[in-house]
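Exercise 7.
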Amino acid sequence: MKNRESTAAVFIAEAGPGLPGLLTMRTWELLGQVDTIVCFGPPNARLLATVTPSAKFVSVEENDPSLASLCRILQEKTRKGERILVIKQDRFCFSREFFQTLDTLKRAGVEFEFIPGVQPEAAIPALAGIPLGRTAPRAPMLLAADSSSASVLRELIKNGGTAVFDSLGRKPAGRIRELLDGGLPDSIPAAVVLDGALFSQRTLAAPLGALEGKLMAIGDFTTCTLIVGDEARVWEPLAWFDKRPLFGLRVLVTRSRDQARPFVKKLEDLGAEVVLFPTIKIVPPESFAGLDRAIGNLSRFSWIIFTSVNGVQAFCDRMTAAGLDWRAIKEARLCAIGPKTAQALRAYGLQVDLVPEIYQAEGILEAFAKENVRGLQVLLARAQEARPDLVQVLRQRGVYVDEVVAYRTVPDKENAREILQMLKESKIHILTFTSSSTVMNFAKAMGDAFPECVGNAEVVCIGPVTAQTARDLGLSVQLVPDSFTTDSMIDVLIRNYPRSRTERRTTHVH
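Solution. The predicted structure, written as tokens, is:
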């Protein structure tokens, strides 16, 4: 855990409208420091990929009006010396439950810190391309107008004002009928933002009277924000949120949680909704004897080959444990498979001598074919489950290979039931696999339902070896990038994903 900057044991953070990028910096800092994260509903993939491996997630039921279960969880965990971050979506600080929670904590002697967030009633219209105050900066504005009387609203609209309703749940049509019955003209500009700030966001803009009928035919949605008044007009230059290239695409990421973070962030920044399902965990080898022996004799190796970032990190950790640093490699040359592995080595200030053009074992063989390697001693630090091809061919060419296990990948079946249900309901559009082990472990996690459970979801693999493993297990692979990196996987998604599924989700009704 990082150094503590606060004596508080409980941190209550507003999540704003729900978009991870709109969390405050303070909340992001705490995600990497606390012991437990309490969420209302399943945590976002980016949150899962950000927290420390030891952090625990706890879900609290939304339908507990007194939040008694939340207070009970907080008191139990603080008694154990844990620090807890509570992430609550919506306007929590204006609710009765918020004050009840703080009062309970105060009476129990629990120190807490409150972190206010971006308010949804301002953020959601802006993300939908409806910037409040653009046309009439001094016009009256009524945010969170849900409990306002009809007379107040009529007076507001009469004076050119705009009202925002952000607690309509799934029944906005009923509220619109109440407004019309209360005397608001049916010609007044209006808009509804469904699932605002989420990856399924949709916007309907129309005169208030026409909007009511259109909403009756709308499919499922979780939240709704209604804007009524002169400002309720979509301004296209600002409507960027659902114009992003992968907007509306739900992508399953099967990488280990630690490695998934940059991949998840880039996908989300491009508009995709990410479902994080780590099929593997990176764990230490059953014994460090082989790796420690090699590290103790580094001067005898001509080459040290790293095949992954995990291998670099494990190697560095064991050198540190032995009281050594990278100077111990002396004159050994370094080979890295893939730019990410090379980047991990360069982060330690090391010169990487060889990065094969093909980012897999075959690339090393092709690069070494240009050299006389007979008699050389090579250290290969990699996963226990790695393919034997590289070692076999190098030894056939007269190379003395010391192959040591730096780490293991083991199956991770957490949340497998939920993922299987999403696949059955066709709620996942793309499956991504970044290694053969992610494919094999995914198949094991799905059990007898595999491979039929994949249904119409498309499969994207990081390279030909992973793709072949997928095909051998019965999957149809649609996309394989030319360069074997997650960035290239994203590029191939952008190029091949049908534009018809990522069109603007704004409808204008006249």
